[in-house]
Write a structure and sequence with these properties.
CATH architecture: 2-Layer Sandwich
Shape: flat
Number of helices: 5
Strand order of the largest sheet: 2-5-1-6
Length: about 140
């Protein structure tokens, strides 16, 4: 349910703005959301519904400010691929009770401090998830 509602909010149409000829692009940042112990799926449905409304409102604010660029929830489960001692690649199932990435947003901000300011409104922080704000690209 979280995935479907949030995905619908993220793909809502936005006004297109052509950049000015000399405008330099603003830096982009990823807002990465992590949870532990499968916390979202343990919440009562009414609490999930209320939180989804907060996510939708926050994304609307980001869109209105021009900061929102992209985002998506990340599904449960999956596989971790890692090189083993012999140089081969092993696959192990993801433990849903470990700390897991649950979704991301891509925003534009003047600098890291501005990106942090925008990320403070992320509803994930208010329901037990942690949020990382990371610059996109290499230095």
């Amino acid at each position: 349910m979280k995935r479907a509602l949030l995905a619908a909010a993220l793909i809502a149409p936005t006004a297109c703005r052509a950049p000015a000829a000399k405008e330099s692009p603003m830096p982009q940042f990823a807002i990465l959301m992590y949870e532990t112990n499968d916390a979202w799926h343990r919440k009562p449905q009414a609490e999930k519904d209320a939180l989804m409304q907060r996510y939708i409102a926050w994304v609307k604010e980001l869109r209105a400010s021009g900061a929102f660029k992209d985002g998506s929830p990340v599904g449960r489960g999956g596989t971790v691929l890692a090189q083993d001692a012999s140089g081969g690649v092993r696959a192990t199932p993801i433990d849903v009770n470990a700390e897991l990435l649950t979704g991301y947003f891509i925003i534009e901000a003047r600098d890291l401090a501005h990106a942090e300011e925008l990320a403070r409104g992320c509803p994930a922080i208010g329901h037990g998830e942690t949020v990382q704000v990371r610059p996109i690209g290499h230095d």
